[in-house]
Design brief:
Helix 7 links the parallel strand 4 and strand 5. The chain is of the alpha/beta class and 303 residues long. The protein is globular, with a radius of gyration of 19 Å. Bound molecules: zinc ion. The site of zinc ion has 5 residues, from loops.
Amino acid sequence: MFTRHPNGLRLLSVHAHPDDESSKGAATLARYAAEGVDVLVATCTGGERGSVLNPAVDRPEVRADIARVRREEMAAAREILGVRQQFLGFVDSGMPGPDEPLPEGCFAARPVELAAAPLVALIREFRPQVVITYDETGGYPHPDHVMTHLVTVAAVEAAGDPELHPGLGEPWQVPKLYYHLALSRAWFQSLHEAMTERGVPSEMGELLTGWPDTPPALATTTRIACAEQFAVRDAAMLAHATQVQPGVAFMSHPRDIEREVWPTEDYHLARSLVPGPGETAVAGEIETDLFAGLRAEAGAGAG
Ligand SMILES: [Zn+2]
């Protein structure tokens, strides 16, 4: 089913809902796709329980058919980013209140081991050298984001284990697993300060004041230069018209300021079977390529 790209490099990015691939790490995906890497987005749920967040498209017929609308938005974003995308077929858990139970049968209510099976099958078929997902906090306190982390870690482990899921394809060891550090407090802070210094009104101050008391972010091991892809990232985000109101705080800053003060998307290398990159990351050296340590080998036929 998967045709092999000439450079043999494959990147899998696992997300919770349609639109997450465009708000976290989208410029990275566009950069690698443009370079000829085979880039696949796996979307765990259909986003069926998402609200319409953009008044401009908040119409009864859109709300009544949100699952279809979000599939169409996803198809448009995928084209813009130049990547492939597959749904894993789970149902959005929504955002239950503190004492509310998860809806029956939703993604986050599934046992992790069972929910990992479709992703195990996908990893064994696609054979990515690099997998990206969220850290254990989910990066955002939505049950589907936390579940996406759990399922991805479980699937990466299980995919390489011949004892597990023997019916789901030949085992594949994923050499590198990364977590997103996107939309971090430091990113908002840097942009807010740069705008303020330049006398540009910033929408980010309020957001920073109300920033929850979260544990310190994971160490940045990897920075991917992708300022040239910011316009593609923005276009992909806006393709999810029900999910983003143009001009919201995380998109309202001038892009020339972003290119100047934060021209990268950043990652934490969570697991590596490749000697070198992990060691340099430990030594405090920052990787500038998700495929560091993997390029020669991939060309020699790892795929
Ligand atoms: Zn999401």
